[in-house]
Hints:
The protein is of the alpha/beta class. It is built from 14 helices and 13 strands.
Amino acid sequence: MSSTGVRFGANYTPSQGWFHHWLDFDIDAVRADLDSIAALGLDHVRVFPLWPLFQPNRTLIRPRAVEQLVALADAAAERGLDVNVDGLQGHLSSFDFLPAWTGTWHRRNIFTDPDVVAGQEEYLRTLAAALADRPNFLGMTIGNEINQFSGPPHPDPDRIGPAQAGAWLRRLLAACEEGAPGRLHLHAEYDAAWYQDGHAFTPEHSATIGAVTAVHSWVFNGTAQRHGRTGTATEHHAAYMIELSKAWADDPHRPVWLQEVGAPAPLVPAEHAAAFTEATVANALDCSDVWGVTWWCSHDVSRSLADFPELEYSLGLLTNDRQVKPAGEAIRRIVADRRGRTYAPPVRTTALVVDVPARWDGDAAPGDAPEVADRSTCAPGGAVFEAFARLTADGARPTTVLASRAGDAAHLAARGITEVVRPEEVA
């Protein structure tokens, strides 16, 4: 860990075969990839087993696949890299990876079916236990943005409500803890959890369940389209998500992990990727209690692979043949500049009021949860989102507070908030 306490890493995308590399696992190719990542000065990687390959049958977790994961972690350790493991893949770069025992003739809800959830528990427990004695094992993330399976816009969702989502998260995190006690176990959702009305996974889940809050910042969600590549809202989107998450956190200093952030073309053209990277990271590090920044991703996707959305091919810090790109050079400079320095961002004393429910404890059926409304006020174009951008453009450094806590003197004092502003008051 750097002296600032902030971790810098990359989401590891293998340069050969993308995540299909597990089918033809080549430890020498992995070592070369990890060498190129370590050369950027990074201290950790987030890695992605493919669930159907590791657990092709509900009662078969392939020992050889687990051994390969451990070998990857050991190779990372040799290069000074810590490892976080995402278990349920789940969803990656527009492709879904679900085992055959959850679909078609065996179709079962992956969040609520007792047999499926028990299988998930055993799988996550097994991966965690296999790595529990490795000093460089950070912990498990339940899965990558698996909330996208819970409702629209997924074309074939396994619908659940907020209470069911919360129960599922707690149960699977308990399995991770059983496998590797005391490690950093968490869950990670894409931004529907923060921005989409009616979504089963809620801000409360992200900000209160698990060891840290994870946010995934992608400006192709309407931010860059609305504000442009150099707009305040675009360059501060990651910082906004970090500060937005704090509105729901019970712990005033709960760590927040910027676990995914990238420079998506063409909204961020290749020639501007380095500038976007530098601005995004600098603004994120102007937030308190940031655990780390993990860029998406390490290496480009090979053009030999078909059917990815165009932007997915060019998100790497390094090319497919492991050459450093301008965004990678930017990350290397940032890490080198911060090495040996201590810096604590000033407290953000102005809080923007978020008038969205603090809790979703009801047992409403999927699609019948009126109390889950209003999150769109936090999304691009929403009142909270746009007010935050205007305050930031005017030189303020806002954070957020729930309306239900805006009059709580003890809560405000614990966070250092001295001024509370409603969105409609921001000109």
